[in-house]
Design goal:
The protein is of the alpha/beta class. Helices cover 37% and strands 20% of the residues.
């Protein structure tokens, strides 16, 4: 029987990503697992110029420090019931960084919401959760946020999606 000791919870800091929290809290309590909350800052850092003093270099406008502060506020406001959470910020493509971190840390389970900031845009572009499920060697548990539980996928949706992905 596989023991769950490390659970990764990717978040985009949206309300939708909180959907996984109750499940994660329950799993963590049952298995005495560590929870890792990962926020990925997408894209390359943008730079702004600081006043030139001979020693200054360009600094990221939205860097990891700001990302860490945002994640920390999010965890303390939205996921208090989990208890101790290891907060992690990475920069890059969300899917790639989620999978990379899971491998680096020896994660046993990834738990994530099926929808994030983009809402239903995944029907056309494919969601991060869908890409993680398809490519992860670590088991992935996906949770549908309350606002999307009544959304049913029809055969037409599936056919259109298959046509778009061919």
């Amino acid at each position: 029987m596989k023991t769950i000791k490390k659970i990764l919870v990717p978040t985009d800091l949206s309300e939708f990503s909180v959907a996984a929290v109750d499940y994660v809290a329950s799993l963590a309590e049952r298995y005495k697992a560590k929870i890792y909350m990962l926020y990925v800052i997408e894209g390359e850092p943008s730079y702004r110029l600081l006043p030139v003093d001979g020693h200054s270099e360009a600094m990221p406008a939205h860097g990891e420090q700001e990302g860490k502060a945002e994640l920390h506020r999010f965890v303390h406001r939205k996921v208090k019931q989990i208890g101790d959470v290891i907060e992690v910020v990475r920069r890059g493509e969300a899917q790639t960084e989620i999978l990379r971190y899971a491998k680096e840390e020896g994660i046993d389970l990834i738990v994530m919401a099926t929808h994030g900031r983009t809402g239903l845009a995944h029907v056309l572009m494919g969601s991060v959760a869908e890409r993680v499920v398809r490519t992860s060697v670590v088991p992935v548990m996906t949770i549908k946020p309350a606002g999307f539980q009544s959304y049913l996928v029809t055969e037409k949706d599936i056919e259109e999606d298959l046509h778009l992905n061919v």
